[in-house]
Structures are given as structure tokens and as C-alpha cells.
Amino acid sequence: MVTKYMKDIIESTPGTLSGKAITYEGLGGPEVIKIVDRAMRPPAAGEVRIRVKAAGVNPTDELLRKIENSLVRFPVIPGADAAGVIESVGSGVSRLRVGEEVMTALTAFRPDGGAQATYIVVPAASVVPMPKGATFAQAATLPMNGLTALRAIELTELKAGQVLAVTGGAGVLARYTIAAARKMGLIVIADAKPEEGDRVLGYGANFVVERGAGFADAIRRQFPDGVDALIDTAVLVAKSFPAICDGGVYIAVRRLGDISRERDIQIKMVWVPDVLKNTKGLDVLREMVESGVITLQVAGEYAPEQVADAQKAVAAGGLRGRPVIVF
Questions:
Q1: Range of weakest confidence among 49-63, 109-123, 142-156, 259-273
Q2: Could you read off the pLDDT of 146-182 as tens digits, one per residue?
Q3: Which structural domains are found in the chain, ordered by start?
Q4: Which H, E and C letters describe the chain, residue by residue?
Q5: Do residues 77 and 23 lie in contact, with contact meaning Cβ atoms separated by under 8 Å?
Q6: Entry pTM
Q7: What is the CA radius of gyration of the chain?
Q8: How far apart are CA 323 and CA 290, in angstroms?
Q9: What is the C-alpha to C-alpha distance for residues 105 and 115, in angstroms, rounded to an integer?
Q10: Residue 14 — pLDDT band, cuts 50, 70, 90?
């Protein structure tokens, strides 16, 4: 059966294609955001070109234009997650086909930039079919946060039966982390506001403690020796250390400055570019959605011209899903 999207692709012009792209001209506020027409090259060997239907909006998108980073070359296209339709494939690509509805993870640090553009070219290894039953908008909320969660758990080196704490328990990254950790047989304790405790238990957490200054003490009441590892999605940093056992593991999900070590706690950081070609991980995430272990939630759909509003919504906090840009 030829879908509407497949028909569009079959009739597309080969070679370079042009479409809208969100760009930052440099560091600054919303005034540096521009919507431009960007030409996208054909895919090379081992790559695919995707007609983006939706691109996720994450906290790192705003940080990209606010914090100086030697890896960024302006003008830059933000965005780390996309869902769309494969428009063409490069030589050597047999696993994916033109017309397939897919999701992908990428980084704005690449020469071709990030996800928030009508057309993107990415390595085939970074692309898998969308979860069955998911919309483009829903699928665009999963890849980068999901891969970050899987990598964070991997870095803990915990085994089934050991105890993992997750801060920011009601957030998107925490949701995926909790679900994946439970699937791996870990015991999970997370924090949440009292009114969101049932929500976090629904994500799969074994125990929920109240969010706030008493977080570490509450964990110690449940686990007097401390937890084996902690994944810090809320960026509590040293405030979370008392919850961790001597010689335990602290996992940062954002770049941090110097951190004072204590009690032989190991400090590790998730470096997202390390996981971009994790095809197996993306397939695991897809299967977790299809089996109902993970539920995808969209916190609003925005046109490219409304990207600043989407970023403001993320920065305001309290979202239980991700906004997406619809192309």
C-alpha cells in the first residue's frame, strides 16, 4: 500500500533538497533564532535522508545558544530527536527503505547540524522504525532521552537486585530511566512531589520519596547504607551525594564543573555523542513503547516559527512530556 508520505517521496526531486530549518546566528536570547531555507545534500554511503515530520525540544536546545561551547559552530541548527519518513538511502544501506516511518537521534555539533529542519541526513545506524501506533510527534520525544537513560544505567554497572536512585522522578528522562532500570531487574527509588507520587510509581519505581531538601535523608531511611548508584536527572549534584553508599556511583546527565569527591563515590557523566549510533538501544526503546513499558507524551506541538515559545515551556519546568516542532 502506498501511503500519502510514500507518494510524496516517490515524486520528490533527486539530489539536493531544500526546506525550512531553525538556526541560531550566535550566542544570545530568542533574537538569535532565525528560520531559514536550508539545502540538504543527498545521503552518502551508510546514510539516509529523512523528511522530518516532528523534532523534539529539549533543555539542551536553549543551552546551545546561551553557553559558549567550543564544539559549536554558528550558525547552528538545534535539536537532538526527530521522527519522519525516509526520503532516500545511501549506498550500502539495506536495513531501511524509502518511505519507512522512522525516528533518530543526532547532535547539533555535527557539520550538518541538529534535528530541527525539514530534511536531515544521518547515519543509518542512528535510525530505527518508529514504534507501532505512535504518531510522529510522540516518536520525536523518545530517541535522545531514551538513549541517555540507557547509557546512564549502563555506566552504573549495576546488576539485577541492586538499588538505583533517580532524581527528578516525574520528568521525561527520569520516566525512561525508571522504566529501563526496572526492565533490567534493578530496585528503583525516585523522588516526586506528593501529588505526583502515584505517577512515578506508575513509571515503575519501587519506592517514591518526597522531593525537596529531605530527599537524601528519606532515601537513607529506606536504605540505611545508601543506594548503590544515583542518576541525577534533576541536577542536584552534591546535594544528592548523602543518598549514595560509600564507593557508590553518581551519574551526571549534563556537563558539570569540578565536583568534590567524597567517600570514594565514583562520578561519571553521560556523553550523548557516544550513543548516537546505538541501533540496538533504539530498537530496545521502540520495543518498550510497543509493549507498554514506556508511554510517550507530547507537551505541545509548535510550528518552527514558535520554537522560542517551546523552549520557554521547557525552561519553565513542570512538563511531563516534551514539546515538538512540527514541519
A1: 259-273
A2: 999 999 999 999 999 999 999 999 999 999 999 999 9
A3: 4-142+296-326 (3.90.180.10), 146-273 (3.40.50.720)
A4: CCCHHHHHHHCCCCCCEEEEEEEECCCCCHHHEEEEEEEECCCCCCEEEEEEEEEECCHHHHHHCCCCCCCCCCCECCCCEEEEEEEEECCCCCCCCCCCEEEEECCCCCCCCCCCECEEEEEHHHEEECCCCCCHHHHCCCHHHHHHHHHHHHHHCCCCCCEEEEECCCCHHHHHHHHHHHHCCCEEEEEECHHHHHHHHHHCCCEEEECCCCHHHHHHHHCCCCEEEEEECCCCHHHHHHHEEEEEEEEECCCCCCCCCCCCCEEEECCHHHHCCCHHHHHHHHHHHHCCCCCCCEEEEECHHHHHHHHHHHHHCCCCCEEEEEC
A5: yes
A6: 0.91
A7: 20
A8: 21
A9: 8
A10: low
Q: What is the mean pLDDT of residues 297-302?
A: 97
Q: How many CB atoms lie within 10 A of CB 202?
A: 12
Burial letters 117-141, b for 16+ CB under 10 A, else e: bbbbbbbbbbbbbbbeebbbbbbbb
Joined grid coordinates for residue 224: 540505611
> In one letter, which amino acid is 198?
D
Q: Return d(Cα 280, Cα 105) in angstroms, integer.
A: 13
Supply φ then ψ for residue 87, to 5 degrees. -90, -35
